[in-house]
Write a structure and sequence with these properties.
This protein is of the alpha+beta class and about 210 residues long. Among the domains are: about 80 residues, Alpha-Beta Plaits (2-Layer Sandwich); about 55 residues. The chain contains 6 helices and 10 strands; from the N terminus they run H-E-E-H-E-H-E-E-H-E-E-E-H-E-H-E. Strand 4 and strand 5 form a beta hairpin. The N and C termini lie far apart (about 65 Å).
Length: about 210
């Protein structure tokens, strides 16, 4: 099935003696004359785009990562600063494209950095949770695993008698689906903090206090 898209154009003159844009660009950025436009039934010029052009375009989007914040998100400048400070200290700059409503595209040109970013479902960026997923022109945000994740949870002031696997599982169930105890908590090395791993829905507000009774 052929897809048709209206593209508006505008032109501007170039003064004599001014160096052309093409001469200032890299060879990879220089455009060329391709194809022969025909006339659409509406009277406008019609340009047919071959399948191999579309396939090549999809391949060029391999550098992009989809990122989403829920409820609230930091400023654009803050996001750019944090992601580059953390993941682009020694490599190429990460470009951030704002899609609106807490959704962004990150252009990460280094394969190793992309793998690192996608190794986890979410990251903490300036105090806000940022979910990430691979992106392509066929990407659908609803299909990405960006609503829940296994996260470390700390429980403080837990009574000694509740410092066992069964009781901590009950406490963790308030937060989400319990997964496991942290090794130091399993060994009872520190009674001030119980560290657990819990699968939580990070689109919902998590409790800050739990009341127990026994």
């Amino acid at each position: 099935m052929e897809k048709q898209q209206l593209v508006e154009t505008s032109t501007s003159g170039v003064s004599p003696g001014v160096k052309s844009y093409a001469s200032l660009l890299r060879q990879s950025a220089v455009l060329e004359e391709l194809g022969t436009p025909s006339e659409h039934i509406s009277g406008a010029p019609f340009v047919f785009i071959p399948d191999d052009n579309i396939a090549a375009a999809k391949d060029e989007f391999r550098d992009f990562i989809y990122a989403r914040f829920h409820d609230d998100w930091p400023s654009m400048g803050r996001i750019i600063g944090v992601v580059n400070a953390i993941w682009a200290k020694t490599g190429p700059r990460i470009y951030v494209h704002n899609l609106g409503q807490g959704e962004y595209l990150l252009k990460v040109t280094t394969a190793k950095t992309r793998e690192l970013l996608l190794a986890r479902t979410y990251w903490n960026v300036a105090g806000f949770i940022m979910f990430v997923a691979p992106w392509s022109p066929d990407f659908t945000p609803e299909e990405a695993p960006i609503t829940n994740a296994v996260v470390p949870v700390e429980l403080r002031d837990v009574p000694y008698l509740l410092f066992n696997q069964q009781s901590l599982s009950r406490l963790a169930t308030v937060v989400g689906k319990p997964v496991s105890l942290a090794p130091e908590t399993e060994r009872k090395e520190n009674f001030q903090v119980a560290k657990l791993f819990v699968r939580v829905d990070l689109t919902k507000k998590l409790p800050t206090k739990i009341i127990t009774g026994f």
